[in-house]
TrEMBL record:
The lineage of its organism: Bacteria, Bacillati, Cyanobacteriota, Cyanophyceae, Nostocales. It is found in: Cytoplasm. PANTHER family: ALDOSE-1-EPIMERASE (PTHR10091), GALACTOSE MUTAROTASE (PTHR10091:SF0). This is Aldose 1-epimerase. GO terms for molecular function: aldose 1-epimerase activity; carbohydrate binding.
Length: 682
């Protein structure tokens, strides 16, 4: 057993201060520190391995009074973990990293995950600079250039650690002496990095340095952030704002040219919040990525907003404040990592973004850039604060707290076209299985129709007949009372329809349906467009719109004055005004449904009696108010395809999603299909 020692130290107050008591528990394997005023604020220390030179390396766990957790190692001053809550209060780790010290040793020779980099972060052209008339040659590790401190920068050394707690949070102070000549730099440089996890849910980094000879200094932290969680995949769906009107253009070797240009009308303009994916699509080249320095607005040396990152699904928001004049945006493109990330995750592609607050790159060789030179008697100071909070959604207006999506059936091939029958069962299409199934609570799944014409969408007409969009038969059909099928429409102006997809019936009995090409091969197309149609009860077919790329889900507002149509390819919902004669006018975009990096597109769509619009999309069911404001996203474990209201009160939303069927209880009932038809038995 380890020997446990309890130490009590009294911190004697200065005038006007109150004495604080710090409790320290120490054993041979673990150290924990708690502040007596903040019993939930703590630091624990564990052994974590040894550096290449045999020095012991520790892992420090900082916990603030609100339960946020940061893990930091004194090897490279690396932030290995930072757990912050989402809008539901669930903690998740928002920095990419690795489970072991050995993994960091392997990967961080070129990727710098979570580390403090220096003595000078970013690039120095040709590994040379002249200071006070003397030329210095540095270690080069990026072709001909010096990058992030050289071959063995601050990211690969062991720092002296001092854990501290206080009423404001948990703090870890790290100190390193970079000796004269290290990596070619002049002067003995004493560096301190103080990490504080505050009780206000801020992660604060304070860096200082002093020297005995003039030397350039430019420190930063190189954490890769993903606010959806380190294992969630891509950051392309994150919304980013950068408080900078200007940037420093690079040459082909990523060395700044010395110019400072406006970001306006360039891919580098994030002065208004923008999806990272929308910016990357403006960049050139294969696997394009940001690796560019911004000249931040505000005065150097004064704390100012540098960036704001917003992640829609978790609701997490991170604001970055800094005293430095610049910030490097690096999205990278991770590939061929030989080491798995935390929990066995394979980081690939745009898995994280770096926001590296700094002086401008190669400042030591650019006289018009802010100077990085530190002289004896001066103190280098750099503060960067990451502030975390969440944006709450408005799903409480439609969903009781803690209500969850429930999987109720599985092992399908691809589910679509759900439809609740008033006699107490659900119909759903399995397109590849060429089958319509009948699902009923506590009953064995039954085949309702096989073959089904690769049925997709289903609805009822006013008489209670089943109306089906048949993919492979390229028609809209009706199931008669005797169970036989009648083709309602299969051609437009003598040419076969593409592949009717989804449909809705208006109170006058007319059927509105979409006709994308999903169910046919390219050579089978006869029409030169993908339309939205209206079929009246007397059999008249009218083309209402043909400017869609992939029209899909379709639904009326409760009063039938508006028609919503999803365009799966474009990624938005369009809305039309409906004339008294049933024709459409005033087409416009109702809402965008884009989240790069998450599977799913606008597909099925339904409306509740209050006019809220429910559309399947990336990550789940997106719920919009009648005005088009996003209320929130009901997350679904599989990619959802379509929706149906059901149960006796029509307050259960049934969701078809890939191989499964889900449901969730909601507050508002949905609009019933064929809402005036009388119940009947099949």
């Amino acid at each position: 057993m380890g020997i446990s020692i309890i130490l009590m130290s009294i911190l004697y107050p200065c005038q006007g201060e109150i004495a604080k008591v710090k409790l320290v528990s120490l054993d041979t394997h673990n150290i924990s520190i708690k502040d007596s005023d903040q019993q939930n604020t703590s630091i624990t220390v564990t052994e974590w391995g040894k550096a290449e030179n045999g020095q012991s390396v520790n892992l420090f766990t900082l916990t603030n009074a609100k339960g946020l957790v940061a893990k930091i190692t004194n090897y490279g001053a690396i932030i290995t973990e930072l757990r912050v809550p989402d809008r539901r209060g669930k903690l998740d780790d928002v920095v990419l990293g690795f489970d072991t010290l050995e993994a960091y040793k392997q990967v961080n020779r070129y990727s710098y995950f979570g580390a403090i980099v220096g003595r000078v972060a970013n690039r120095i052209a040709n590994g040379k600079f002249t200071l006070d008339g003397k030329e210095y040659t540095l270690a080069t590790n990026a072709g001909l250039h010096h990058l992030h401190g050289g071959k063995k920068g601050f990211d690969q050394v062991v720092w002296q650690a001092e854990p501290i707690t206080s009423p404001t949070g948990a703090t870890l102070k790290l100190t390193y002496l970079s000796v004269d000549g290290e990596e070619g730099y002049p002067g003995n440089l004493t560096v301190t990095v103080t990490y504080t996890l505050t009780n206000n849910n801020e992660f604060k980094m304070e860096m200082t340095a002093t020297t005995d000879k003039p030397t350039p200094v430019n420190l930063t932290n190189h954490s890769y952030w993903n606010l959806a969680g380190h294992a969630s995949g891509s950051i392309l769906g994150h919304q980013l704002l950068i408080n900078a009107d200007k940037y420093t253009p690079n040459n082909a070797q990523k060395i700044p040219t010395g110019e400072i240009k406006l970001v306006q009308n360039t891919p580098y303009d994030f002065t208004q919040p923008k999806l990272i994916n929308d910016g990357i699509k403006q960049l050139e080249g294969d696997k394009p990525s940001y690796d560019i320095n911004y000249a931040l607005n505000g005065k150097p040396g004064q704390i100012k907003l540098a960036a704001k990152v917003d992640e829609r699904f978790s609701g997490r928001v991170m604001e970055v404040y800094t005293t430095k004049p610049g910030m490097q945006l690096y999205t990278g493109y991770l590939q061929n990592l030989k080491t798995q990330g935390k929990g066995g995750v394979n980081y690939q592609g745009y898995a994280g973004l770096c926001l590296e607050t700094q002086y401008f790159p190669n400042s030591v060789n650019q006289p018009n850039f802010p100077s990085t030179i530190l002289r004896p008697g001066q103190i280098y100071r750099h503060t960067t604060t990451h502030k975390f909070y969440t944006k709450q959604d408005n799903l409480q207006s439609i969903l009781d707290k803690n209500t969850q999506v429930e999987k109720i059936a599985r092992n399908f091939k691809f589910t679509e076209g759900p439809l609740w029958h008033p006699n107490g069962f659900l119909l759903l299409s399995d397109i590849p299985a060429n089958t319509i199934y009948q699902w009923q609570p506590n009953q064995k799944l039954q085949i309702f129709r096989h073959p089904s014409g690769n049925a997709n969408g289903n609805t009822f007409d006013l008489q209670g007949h089943l109306i089906t969009a048949e993919h492979s038969n390229r028609r809209v059909s009706r199931t008669e009372k005797n169970g036989k099928l009648a083709a309602l429409v299969s051609h437009y102006q003598g040419k076969r329809l593409n592949s009717p997809n989804d449909l809705v019936v208006k109170s006058d009995g007319s059927i509105y349906f979409t006709d994308p090409p999903y169910g046919i091969k390219p050579q089978q197309k006869e029409l030169g467009f993908y339309g939205v149609y209206r079929l009246t009860s007397d059999g008249k077919l009218t083309l209402l719109a043909k400017d869609f790329v992939r029209p899909n889900g379709i639904a009326f507002s409760p009063d039938e004055t508006k028609l919503y149509v999803n365009d799966s390819e474009i990624g938005h919902i369009r809305v039309f005004d409906v004339n008294s004669d049933g024709l459409l006018k005033n087409s416009r975009i109702f809402a965008q449904q884009k989240y790069p990096g998450k599977e799913g597109v606008p597909d099925g769509i339904k409306v509740d009696i209050k006019g809220n619009v429910y559309s399947t999309g990336p990550g789940g069911v997106w719920v919009f108010s009648a005005a088009g404001n996003l209320l929130g996203i009901i997350e679904v474990p599989e990619v959802p395809a379509n929706l149906a209201w059901g149960d006796n009160d029509y307050k259960t939303l049934y969701i078809t999603a890939r191989n499964s069927l889900y449901r969730i209880r909601l507050k508002n009932p949905g609009v019933r299909p064929g809402k005036s038809f009388a119940l009947r038995s099949w």
